[in-house]
Here is the input.
Amino acid sequence: MEKNELWNLISFSWYFVKPFFYAVMLYAVIAIAYDEWARLQPLSLKQESHWINYDSSKRAEDVAELDYKNRMIRYRVYLQANDKDAINRINPKVFIDDKGYYDWYDISDYYDLYEYYHD
Here is the structure.
């Protein structure tokens, strides 16, 4: 291939590639300029919580229930060893004293399922 033919091939290729090249460069310049402009803008909106009694000092594991109707959060209450008032408020009713307990917890059903499913 002669030098003149190679030059013609390059210039002909550049004729088709040039618009795409300029479009990509223009997009890159606009994206960089927008990114720099967006970093300078402070967040002006202070986000408020939807929940009325939201406590940011508590962890997500402390949430026991979310009441969507009243917009309230019910947090877990952790009992301490010396908290006698809270212990007295707990109903000491034992679950096994319930007459329907043994009907519900039939161990023979468990063995039937174990035999059916093996592992």
Notes: The first strand starts at residue 63 and ends at 67. The mean pLDDT is 77. The first helix runs from residue 3 to 40.
